[in-house]
């Protein structure tokens, strides 16, 4: 229970942190006109963008490792007090779980970076990134629910087809939540298509960064 709640808190709070960092490193760069000094140096614009992206990602993943280590220690200490019916696995199962969470944050950092370039106000970075996160993490579960239980809505097939279209536009971030392998210590609970999940997430991240670079190159500064 403690591990489950802790992972949920990490997946909810760290996206807020990465958005705030992106706003500070990119959105406010343009909002406060710091770019007038930054872009005066003979460096390409994409270098500015990628450096900010790497800095945001490094800080986010560093904080993820700190929180994951703290959570593992707390769960281990709690486990010393009583024996659980199904002990959690804090070995390589836990490391794989954290790695998939890090991949989730990689995609969200790319989304926040793109929005920071194209958005006119820093607040849209927060709204857009969290909106993307909620949809990308939930549409897969909704499709599965409608497939297994058609009685949830009156026209389940139409709803399922409509929501399923999102799989062509968004990565399935919900499938990257593989905490079950750490909660039950069974690698069999890892999705069978996990290589495709990893590849699609990395490809989507590269595509978003390419769009962000293109948008920055065409951006006109007053």
Report on the architecture of this protein.
With 222 residues, the chain is mainly alpha-helical. The chain is built from 8 helices and no strands. The mean pLDDT is 84.
List its traits:
0% strand; mainly alpha; 222 residues; single chain
**Order of H and E elements:** HHHHHHHH
First-last Cα distance: 53 Å
**Outline type:** globular
Structural class, by secondary structure, is: mainly alpha
Number of strands: 0
Q: What oligomeric state is this?
A: single chain
* Helix fraction by DSSP (H/I, runs of at least 4): over 70%
| Poorly predicted runs of 5 or more residues | none
Mean pLDDT, all residues: 84
> What count of helical segments does DSSP give?
8
Strand content: under 5%
Most strands sheet:
none
Gyration radius (Cα, Å) is 20 Å
Describe the SSE topology.
Elements: H1 2-31, H2 35-38, H3 45-81, H4 92-118, H5 122-148, H6 156-164, H7 180-184, H8 194-218
Helix pairs in contact: 1-3, 1-4, 1-5, 3-4, 3-8, 4-5, 4-8, 5-6
Q: In short, what is this structure?
A:
The protein has 222 residues and is an all-alpha fold. It is built from eight helices and no strands. The longest helix is centred in the N-terminal third of the chain and has 37 residues, at 45-81.
């Amino acid at each position: 229970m403690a591990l489950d709640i802790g992972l949920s808190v990490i997946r909810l709070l760290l996206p807020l942190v990465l958005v705030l960092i992106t706003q500070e490193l990119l959105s406010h760069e343009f909002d406060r006109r710091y770019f007038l000094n930054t872009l005066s140096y003979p460096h390409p614009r994409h270098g500015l963008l990628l450096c900010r992206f790497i800095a945001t990602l490094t800080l986010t993943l560093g904080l993820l490792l700190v929180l994951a280590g703290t959570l593992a220690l707390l769960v281990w200490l709690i486990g010393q007090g009583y024996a659980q019916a199904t002990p959690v696995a804090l070995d390589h199962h836990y490391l794989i779980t954290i790695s998939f969470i890090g991949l989730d944050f990689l995609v969200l950092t790319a989304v926040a970076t793109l929005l920071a370039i194209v958005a006119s106000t820093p607040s849209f970075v927060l709204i857009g990134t969290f909106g993307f996160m909620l949809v990308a993490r939930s549409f897969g579960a909704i499709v599965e629910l409608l497939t297994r239980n058609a009685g949830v809505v009156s026209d389940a097939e139409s709803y399922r087809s409509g929501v399923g279209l999102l799989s062509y536009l968004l990565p399935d971030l919900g499938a990257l939540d593989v905490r079950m392998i750490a909660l039950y210590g069974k690698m069999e609970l890892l999705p069978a298509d996990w290589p495709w999940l990893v590849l699609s997430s990395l490809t989507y991240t590269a595509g978003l960064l390419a769009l962000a670079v293109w948008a920055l190159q065409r951006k006109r500064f007053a």
